[in-house]
Design brief:
Structural class: alpha+beta
Oligomer: single chain
Number of strands: 6
InterPro entries: PPA1309-like (IPR047681)
Strand order of the largest sheet: 2-1-3-4-5-6
Helix content: 25-40%
Amino acid sequence: MSTPPAPSPQPDDTQTRARRALADAVREIEHHVAAAGWDAPVRVFALVRTRTALTTEPGLADQLAPEVLAAARADDQHLTSVEQEGLPAAEDLEHLLGGLTWPPTVDGAAVTVERVVLPPGAEEDLPADPDAALAALLAHPQRQDVRLAVAVLRDGPSWCAVRTRAHDDDDAVGQGPDLVPGLVEAVRATLE
């Protein structure tokens, strides 16, 4: 009599749910920021697991929509984003993120930022002078304005969303775990 084969390992359900919750939080953040329109400043969000936050701050339940409460009851990985106001002054995004730290009660962080991008190779023709390069970039006929939303959980997963001004529609937002690897790592560093 032979022994039945061992069941194949299943993916970690907690990690799958965490990744899905993070993707949902990024979509929500990106849609929220998009509703305010373009030419917006950098925005930063703390991400907390909703069920845990409700345990430590029961009054939070009065501020959340019924569907959010139901989602939190159904999934302990559900995330709530908390926009950070009064960010410290910084000369650029790198310095802003370099100055942020989060307490252990924050499970993740997200940032939204707008950028101008050019097709590959187009940057080679930009002038060396920074002011002249900026003027050329802004006047370039192939420039694309994009909004990036990037989030990372303290315990690993990341998720990104990219919206272009030229295709400014909720159905045209690109998404994936590592679309903006440098920004993913910069946000991850705020959690260390």
